[in-house]
Amino acid sequence: MALWDFLFKGKIAEQVAQQVTEVEKRMVEVSEQRSMEKAKEIHQVWLDDLEKASKATDAAEGKSLLYDPFQLLDTLKYKERPMMLTYDVLRAMSERNPIVAAIINTRVNQVASFSSPPKTPYDIGFRVHMRDDKLEPEKADDARIKELTALIEETAIEQVPGEERDNFDTFLRKCTRDSLTYDQMAFEIINGKGGYPVAYLGIDASTIRLASTARFFKDIRGGIMQPPKVDLALGTRQKEEIKPEDIRYVQILDGKVVTTYTSQELGFGIRNPRSSIKQNGYGVSELEILVNTVTAHLWAEEYNRRFFSQGSAPK
Length: 315
What we know:
- By secondary structure, this protein is of the alpha+beta class.
- It has one domain (about 75-295).
- About 45% of the residues lie in helices and about 15% in strands.
- It has seven helices and nine strands.
- The chain has helices spanning about 1-55, 85-95, 100-110, 140-155, 170-180, 285-290, 290-310; strands at about 80, 185-190, 195-200, 210, 230, 235-240, 245-255, 255-260, 265-270.
- The strands form three sheets. It has a four-stranded antiparallel beta sheet, with no helix packed on it. It has a three-stranded antiparallel beta sheet with strand order 3-2-9. A two-stranded antiparallel sheet has the order 5-6.
- A hairpin with a 2-residue loop joins β7 and β8.
- α2 (about 85-95) crosses α3 (about 100-110) and α3 runs antiparallel to α5.
- The longest helix is centred in the first third of the chain and has 54 residues, at about 1-55.
- It starts with a helix and ends in a 5-residue tail after the last helix.
- About 15% of the residues are buried.
């Protein structure tokens, strides 16, 4: 009887193991099938875009691919930047390594010295002048020059009640530090009546990504992701209908798109552009190039610290 129970239980265990194995196989097959379907979908989207580009005879647009359409990250409504280091690691390198921090602070102070108009012809600073140097500004031109100079210095034509806004010196320091850390700088442009800029503010460049194809943004505008604009000149809130193909940049938080921008709403700049199709239109930070040098420096400092703290000097 005990032998029969043992064989019976062993047979049941064997059947259960076979069922578990079959379920795992089916799960793997379903996962592979879904992956193939997703890859075919992305490939079909790329073929459709390529066909449209080949038929675009009236529009003066190029037909070359500027980024890799087969990258799965492109389906997240934005093109992710390929990096050997994350944004958080780059920020930590710029703040915790004393040599890198000193270099960045020096460059930031040098750029910030141009944040005000020069008082004498020999001072450094910025100056708004006529596009044609041979023309003499008239009274209307002088008034416009003063208005633009005030807009640049105060980063706004009119302050919103209860809102604290950075001046041009702080704006330059923020954007320059982001540029030297990530090779990205970004600032939002607030447009007022008539579509003319009335204010601008520096934002965290590590949260900005280049937008993906337009079809992914049909339902983003009009939701809570993009608040209506604030007209500083009139003090009213106005809504605009933005076409999906006009979206050029997105702001992400925890991997989710929270805000979208057109080219008229956001300034985005890089200093080290690359033509590599794998780079997705982004640049390369100097800190990424210096990662081996900075790592060696950290190791050397750690070695010296242990020598003076423990008194050991291994060969």
